[in-house]
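Worked Example 4.2. Consider the chain below.
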Amino acid sequence: MAMLALAGVTTLALRPPPLTDLSDGHRLRKINFFPLWAQGDLVVLTRHAERCDHSTNPCLAQPDGITVKGSRVAEQLGRTFQALGLDQATIYNSPLRRTEQTAAFAFNRAPVAQDWLVNCRKSMLDDVLKHKMDGYNLILVTHSECISEVEKSLNVRAPVTLDYGSSLIVSVNRKDRSATVLGYIDAQDWNTVLAKRP
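Applying the procedure from the previous section yields the following structure tokens:
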């Protein structure tokens, strides 16, 4: 019986930590989100807005793109990033239409497509670190499976797949290039995040 109890405790101890909702409580201050953003030490992996072909909402245009509702969410997301400041930010998206449209509506500029943001199996974290420049936040508009690849690589247990427009926040240490998942922010919670700015 003692062996079974020990095995259970060991299994729990070895499980990856759960993914943290950063819009909840004082978690943003605890992880130093705003100073890390100001220093350009963050990577934000944002899932594209709502897919037209997976929704009953009206399509924006092509069926492989996003919905009208998704375009509004992307615009709101863009206003949030503008409020945080984009002077020290590099923005990329995958070459698929839904991510290109999300990036275009969010950032009001021509999308910069990167193949590695859709072909992300097993190399996603390496590609993220290759493209992260010191002193510049890296914003990636990508897909749920690519975000999951980063979570797996950094041994983080995600309770569910991130919703459309939600973001995984990762910090990158300049000295040793190590990455740490800080948590996630759902698309509708960014206003709450901005309200907590010092």
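The mean pLDDT is 89. The chain has eight helices and five strands. Compare this with Example 4.1 before moving on.
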